[in-house]
Specification:
The structure is a homodimer. In chain A, 35% of the residues lie in helices and 18% in strands. By secondary structure, chain A is α/β, with parallel strands linked by helices.
Chain lengths: 304, 304
C-alpha cells in the first residue's frame, strides 16, 4: 500500500450519479454530482472527475461503483460489469465497469455491484451490521430492493437477489388493490413501495399522518416480506432503509407484526431481541457513497 | 490421510436412524437401522454400530450426521450440535454431536447439520448440482424443508433456513382451505406438503390420479414458493426431492407455472433453460446417507 490511500466511490442512481474521493478513514475529500443522462455523457463526467482528482491528490488506490440494476455482479460472467435489462433509455447492456477500466487504469482494483449489495457491505463494515456475517439490507422507497451478506460474503447466485419482488398474500382489507408492480402486481414492491402507498390512498406517502390506517397496512406487508426473508436467509439482523422508512414510527409497528406473523416458530435469541433485529441504517444520509467505498475496499482486499 | 479411509454417515430421521460406513468412493461397506426411540437408546445403538465397524474395519476417518431439525449447525454457537425445540418427545436439547464425540473419539472430525443442508451438499458433490456454488435443495413430503449453498458454502445465519414455512398467497379457488401448518396455516408447507394435499382432497396424495385438479394446484403452490426462493437466493439450480415429487409429472407443470409467475422478470440464461433449472435429485434413494457422507467429507476438509 502507498503511504496515502485514496478511495473512489460512485453512487450511480436512476436520476443522478454521485462521485467522491475519500481517504482511508472515509473522510470525503471531494465530491461531484451529475444527472443520469445518456450513459456516455454521464460516465465521461464521472471519469473526468476522478482523473482531475488523481491529478490533484495522487493515484486512486481502488474504486467502488454502487449502481442501479439490474446488473451483472459476477466476476466470472462474460457480461460482468454491465447493466442488464433496464427500462432506463440507453443504459441496457452498458459496460459500466469496462468504461472506467479504460478511462482510468486497467490495473485499478474496481468493485462493481448493486446499490443495495453495496449498502449491506457498508453497513457490515461501518454501520448497523458491524461484526455480523449474515445480514440483510432492504430499501423501501420508489422500489424495494435487498442485498444480503451470507457467511461474510455478498450473496450472488445467477445474479444479485431481487427480494423486493417476492409474492405475498394480499390483506383481506386490501383485496381490491391490484398492486403497482408491472411484472407481478402484488409482490412486496407492488404492495409496499412508496408508489404503492400513494396509489392505494391517492396521496403521497409522506403526507399521510401517523395515525392513518395506511401505516398499519404498510407495517403488515413489510413484516410479511421480512418473514419470508428471515425463513429463507436466516439473517442475524435486518437493516431497513429508503424513503418510506423515514417514517421511523414504522419500526416498532413492523417489529410487533413480524413477531405475530412468525407465530413463535423461530425461537432464536436474535429474533426475540426484536429491537436489535429490525433496525434503521447506521449510515443515514451517507449510505450511498459509503456503499461505493465499501466496494472499493473489498476490491482492494480481493486483489491483495 | 491413512492408506484406507472409512467414512461414517448417520441419516437421523423422525422415525428411524440409518447408519453406514463407506469407503472413500462412497461404496457402502455396512449399514444399520434403528427406530427413533428416546435419544439415549437410539444414539447408543448408532455408536455401538460404529464402534463395531471400527473394530472390524479400522478407524473412521470422519463422521457426518444429517439429522432432523430444528438443530444448531453453527460451530461457534454454545448450543452447536444440539437438537433445538422439537415436538419429538425427549429430543429437545439433545446434544447429538457431543454424544458421538464422547462415544467415539474427541479427535474424530464430525459434521453435523440438517438433512436438507446435508442433501444440498451431497447433490453439489455427487448429484444433480455438481459444479454449482449456488444451489437449493427442497424436499416436499410430510413437511417441506430446504437447504442452500451460497458461494459454495452452506447457508447458515442465526441458524439453518426454514424456507418451507414462507407465507404465500392462497389461490382464489382454494380460499376455503386453511392450511395444515400449526404455526402459520397457509405457509408453503401448510399449503403444499403431502398432508396438505391429503387434507384438501380427503385422500392420500399418492392415490390421486395424474389428471386430478390437485396436481395443478400443487404445481402452482410449489412454483409460488420457488418464485420467492429464486428472488431471494438467486440459485443457479433448484433440486426438488421428497415423497410428493415421486409424482414426476409435476416437474413440467412446476416449470411452466414458475415461468408464468416470474412474468419475464428474470431474464437469466439459467432460468430460460427451465429443464435444467428445476430438476429431480441426482441421488434418488441414496440422498440421505450421501448427505451424511458429504458432511463427513466436509468435516475432514475443514480440519485439514
Amino acid at each position: 500500500m502507498k503511504n496515502e490511500n485514496f478511495f473512489g466511490a460512485i453512487e450511480g442512481g436512476g436520476t443522478k450519479f454521485i462521485c467522491a474521493v475519500a481517504d482511508e478513514h472515509n473522510a470525503i475529500l471531494r465530491e461531484m454530482r451529475v444527472p443520469t443522462a445518456l450513459p456516455q455523457a454521464t460516465l465521461a463526467a464521472c471519469a473526468d472527475f476522478f482523473l482531475q482528482a488523481q491529478h490533484d491528490l495522487g493515484e486512486l488506490t481502488a474504486l467502488g461503483i454502487a449502481c442501479f440494476g439490474p446488473l451483472d455482479p459476477r466476476p466470472t460472467s462474460p457480461t460482468y460489469g454491465q447493466i442488464l435489462a433496464t427500462p432506463k433509455p440507453g443504459w441496457e447492456n452498458t459496460d459500466v465497469l469496462g468504461f472506467f477500466r479504460t478511462a482510468l487504469s486497467t490495473h485499478l482494483p474496481i468493485g462493481f455491484d448493486t446499490d443495495v449489495d453495496a449498502a449491506v457491505l457498508a453497513e457490515s463494515r461501518w454501520g448497523a451490521g458491524q461484526g455480523l456475517s449474515n445480514l440483510v439490507y432492504l430499501t423501501i422507497g420508489t422500489g424495494i430492493g435487498g442485498g444480503a451478506l451470507v457467511n461474510g460474503q455478498l450473496l450472488h447466485g445467477y445474479a444479485h437477489p431481487e427480494m423486493g419482488h417476492i409474492l405475498l398474500p394480499v390483506h383481506p382489507a386490501d383485496i381490491s388493490f391490484k398492486g403497482v408492480c408491472p411484472f407481478h402486481g402484488t409482490c412486496l414492491e407492488g404492495l409496499a413501495s412508496g408508489p404503492a402507498i400513494e396509489a392505494r390512498w391517492n396521496q403521497p406517502a409522506a403526507s399521510l399522518p401517523q395515525n392513518h390506517p395506511a401505516w398499519q397496512l404498510e407495517a403488515h406487508y413489510l413484516a410479511l416480506g421480512l418473514v419470508n426473508i428471515c425463513l429463507t436467509l436466516a439473517p442475524e439482523r435486518i437493516i431497513l432503509g429508503g424513503g418510506v422508512m423515514n417514517q421511523s414510527f414504522l419500526f416498532p409497528m413492523i417489529r410487533s407484526e413480524l413477531t405475530r406473523l412468525l407465530g413463535n416458530y423461530l425461537q432464536m435469541p436474535q429474533i426475540a431481541d426484536m429491537e436489535n433485529y429490525i433496525v434503521p441504517t447506521g449510515l443515514a444520509g451517507i449510505a450511498g457513497l459509503y456503499g461505493g467505498l465499501a466496494l472499493a475496499h473489498q476490491a482492494l482486499q480481493n486483489q491483495q
